[in-house]
Amino acid sequence: MKIYLVTGGAGFIGSNFIIYMLKTYNNIKIINVDKLTYAGNLENLKEVENNLNYMFVKADICNKKEISRIFYEYDIDYVVNFAAESHVDRSINDPEIFVRTNVLGVQNILNIAKNSWEIDSGFKGEKKFVQISTDEVYGSLGDTGYFTENNPLDPHSPYSASKAAADLIIKSYYDTYSMPVNITRCSNNYGPYQFPEKLIPLIINNCLSKKVLPVYGDGLNIRDWLYVEDHCKAIDMVLKKGRIGEVYNVGGHNERTNIHVVKTIIKYIYENFDSAVTDDLIEYVKDRKGHDRRYGIDPTKINKELDWKPTTSFETGIKKTINWYIKNEEWLKNVISEGYKNYYKKMYGDI
Ligand code: NAD
Ligand code: TYD
Asked: Is the pTM of this model over 0.90?
């Protein structure tokens, strides 16, 4: 039975990944290690909490002793690292925690995995460390072209810079020690359990409570959207079949401007749930500092080498996502804690 150490598994993508893996395989064990920051929520994992193949440990990836103990107690086969501070706006307001978790924390778990797995200066068996990185490490595109794995790293926000730093440290462990690693660089995800500070759940949540829909700048920045389950399948394939030391971009050519995304959500809610939700709620607000204009993934490598393709189009995925948040309004209410309300108030004023 393979043992997976999933770090950051109580967050958005990590919880979707754990649920997907436990639904797909009954012969694996998953140990979820999460610090439970504002973004981590064990409610996301309710449907698997009693699964005998699942276990939760509350710990910080920066903590040497606690992470070492997990490697001492369990013969970990795979590490999949989702743990991160993940919100660009927060990184602009307070960069320090991003360096701590996203750089030093990654170095800590990487080093402990290396020390635990390395025998006589070699790595035996099927061990692998997979880092969940982001397309944001490549910086921003103009009107044409796509990010390939060979693009230079050119991050602009403290968030993307911290992710790029981690990618380089992981690459150095492959180059220096031949440690079995892969890095995935995915475009923007959306779907169930995403914390409502990111564009799509924030807009859905604000529509449901008739709050202003803040659109940064001219609303014409472009993101390449991927339904979270497609990302989870890609990670599973990289774990199984990814060539050691390689980077895989993950994306499905679903580029949309932010204003298109916002208007799509409004239209669907207006037509199906509430005719009081209209474009009048949109408010163009001050642009994000250093706001990347466009992201767009070239997924040729993962398509060709691992035969991965996304199965959910943006039009289908966004409807599924809106339906999920409407059905799970309780979840939405519960995750917006007092701390988050204060943060939101600081960003946008009274809510
Ligand atoms: P998220 O913010 O929803 O979840 C992050 C999780 O990490 C939370 O459960 C949090 O409690 C945990 N965590 C934070 N600091 C920790 C620490 N020091 N020790 C242990 N746990 C800690 O993030 P997400 O959107 O699920 O993103 C997961 C990963 O995927 C991140 O590494 C992010 O950079 C990457 N990524 C995200 C997207 C996206 O669109 N969301 C796209 C590409 C890549
Ligand atoms: P976000 O979900 O924060 O993801 P990222 O910055 O990692 O791409 O933002 C997606 C896009 O939406 C980005 O261009 C910023 C924009 N945006 C808004 O216009 N309004 C908002 O309230 C938020 C959170 C984001």
From this structure: yes
